[in-house]
Design goal:
By secondary structure, this protein is α+β, with helices and mostly antiparallel strands. Helices cover 54% and strands 16% of the residues. The protein contains 8 helices and 14 strands. It has 2 domains: 229 residues, f41 fragment of flagellin, N-terminal domain, CATH 1.20.1330.10; 89 residues. The strands form 4 sheets. Strands 5, 8, 9, 10, 11 and 14 form a 6-stranded antiparallel β-sheet that branches.
């Protein structure tokens, strides 16, 4: 078969171009460390890589919401910790103010100390995250949620929590300030005691539950009467007499009825009355402190009244401090959940990166071997082209 010189030349050029293209392609793979650099390289693998990249980007977006929630909850937990320390200082001042040996001026000094701490608490309650969002603003966190008005501190925020979406989890960006600061249960959490008429030196404690199953939810009144020189008491349920009528009173001895137990200390006078009624979830930190300050500033109180007011106020302070502590625990649980979501997002991102690498990644050992083979083929094509260049009549004439 006769092969023309021009045909040999064209075939050599085609082979050289093809070899050069193959070599350029493998060089691109080595430089990018990717087997698939464009969809035409491997349409199926390119589709897998694109889906994996989209999943990775969704995970990154989800993690940004998680990071925002973590920052807000960390700041909230710190704020609630500061509030707990301030409440402890307030309690110490209240215990000092209840000292029977203190004068009215000394109690007023303790009231001023508590007022300063109360103002610090208000600043904590209106604390922001540094970017203008109030930590305890609930769903309306662009304005200070607590306003110190003439009738006391009022909550101007919006109840609930602002949340940031993170996949299937909604993580909070704020804390419900109303729940944290304004919704502690009154009394001991189940019922609250109160002095209605106290002409003697007696005072009632906060009481305790002895049998939860026996609780009725009624309001009870303890009426004292002096019968022939003996102080007795009668228990009324919702204003109606009960079996406990005309019972001799012993100071400091617990009085029990329908799952409740209260202790009245001191000496009641004829006609004194004390009540117990179900507690309600509306005790405000600031209302409790305002009452405490007002009581400590009230002069010329009898010793029984001082003891009674101090017992009530201490119980109320413990209740609101407990509510703040409970909210701090909830924020801590949220931080634990955030850690779990962060770990889950990291696993999802790693899985997406692995899938993407499997789809478009390059086996470097195989690629280097292919490069060497392509380079050898390219060198052979060059030598073949050089030989073809010499096949000319002029080369023979010369």
């Amino acid at each position: 078969m006769r092969i023309a010189t021009a045909n040999s030349y064209d075939a050599s050029v085609d082979a050289l171009s093809r070899r050069q293209g193959d070599l350029t392609g493998i060089q691109e793979q080595l430089s990018t460390t990717k087997r698939v650099n464009r969809a035409s390289d491997d349409p199926a693998a390119a589709g897998r890589a694109e889906r994996a990249l989209a999943a990775e980007m969704r995970t990154d977006a989800s993690q940004r919401a998680v990071d925002a929630s973590q920052t807000a909850m960390t700041l909230s937990e710190s704020a609630l910790g500061d509030a707990g320390e301030l409440m402890q200082q307030i309690r110490e001042a209240m215990v000092a103010g209840g000292n029977a040996s203190y004068s009215d001026a000394e109690r007023a000094a303790q009231a001023e100390k508590i007022k300063g701490l109360r103002d610090q608490l208000l600043a904590v309650a209106n604390r922001t995250d540094g970017s203008g969002t109030h930590l305890f603003g609930g769903q309306g966190a662009d304005q200070p949620p607590f306003v110190d008005a003439s009738g006391g501190v009022q909550y101007r925020g919006v109840g609930g929590e602002a949340a940031g979406a993170s996949g299937n989890d909604a993580l909070p960006l704020t804390v419900d300030g109303s729940t944290a600061w304004m919704s502690a249960r009154t009394g001991n959490g189940v019922f609250q005691t109160q002095s209605v008429v106290s002409n003697g030196s007696a005072w009632i404690d906060n009481g305790r539950v002895t049998d939860p199953q026996a609780l009725t939810g009624s309001t009870y009144t303890l009426q004292f009467a002096d019968v022939a020189g003996t102080m007795t008491y009668s228990v009324l349920q919702d204003g109606l007499p009960t079996a406990a009528a005309g019972v001799p009173f012993t100071p400091g001895k617990a009085i029990e009825f329908d799952g409740q137990s209260v202790t009245i200390t001191g000496n009641p006078a004829d006609g004194d009355q004390f009540t117990t009624q179900p507690s309600t979830p509306n005790a405000s930190v600031f209302d409790v402190l305002d009452k405490t300050i007002a009581d400590l500033k009230t002069p010329l109180r009898a010793s029984g009244r001082i003891a009674q007011d101090n017992a009530f106020n201490l119980g109320a302070v413990d209740a609101v401090a407990g509510q703040l502590s409970s909210m701090r625990s909830r924020v801590g649980e949220t931080l634990n959940r955030i850690d779990s979501v962060t770990g889950s997002n990291a696993s999802l991102k790693l899985a997406s990166q692995t899938e993407r690498q499997n789809a478009e990644g390059l086996d470097m050992v195989e690629a280097i071997s292919n490069f060497q083979n392509k380079q050898t083929g390219y060198d052979a094509a060059l030598k073949s082209y050089a030989l073809v260049q010499k096949i000319s009549l002029f080369n023979y004439i010369s």
